[in-house]
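User: What would this chain look like folded?
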Amino acid sequence: MAKSEVYFTKDISPEGLVKIYRALGVQLKGKVAVKISTGEPGGHNFLQPKLIKDLVNDLDGTIVECCTAYRGKRFDVKNHYKAIKDHGFTEIAPCDIMDEEGEIKIPVKGGTHLHGYNIVGSHISNYGSMLMLSHFKGHAMGGFGGALKNMSIGVASRNGKAWIHSVGRTEDPDAMWGLIEDQDGFLESMAEACRGVVDYFGAENMAYINVANRLSIDCDCDSNPHEPEMADIGIFASLDPVALDKCCYDAIMNSTDKGKASLVNRMKEKHAIHLVDTAQKLGLGSEEYKITDIDN
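Assistant: Here's the prediction, encoded as structure tokens.
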């Protein structure tokens, strides 16, 4: 199997973000959705508007999100839009909560948990392509959050998140919390959901960027995240989400930064690499990659 290309820059800046996107050599078609995490109020590690503004505008993109399955400040549409505004995203680009007017089911080919469908925000049909612009960091449930988590849980509607977290047993966000004991099944369900999103858009209409900064052990969905203990690494980009997340995982595991210990433990504890392994088995990409440093 040929190795997938992963581009890298240490330049975590608006200019670096635009440069690494252009290195991908892709032209996203139609109306472009830029999927980010807009961050739970109280948190502060999410990708900042001033960092992503130039790239989003360069793509004439729309920042997209979906409501959360937990009952925080982004559980309902009104409060979620307030959070998006308060965090400064409405000042830089159009913003769209994709499940504000409902949800649709999209097919999932392969896998064993989601029973053949993923549940996503209905506004997904307004877009011809999608950039997964992810903050790579830890996560209390998944071990880490990168392109694959952003594409699965992030694109899923509130009910779709419950469907994934419960490993295909409930679409009720309140009921799902009693059905989250199957960790590997959850990771496998995320990979299945990714399969559905890629098939919906077509692989040629998707691109992936992970920004490895503010490397907390906690996700941007945490209202009080742990402060990062290791230094920023840089920006990674690829047309292969499996290679991209594996590369970021390896960068942390192989880092000489002594502050990595907590994040490494979080990823190991949650068996995080199983998500990447399963995504490869489902044909979403390859764990074999080569890195091209665009700073050289």
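The chain is about 30% helix and 20% strand. If you want, I can go into more detail on any region.
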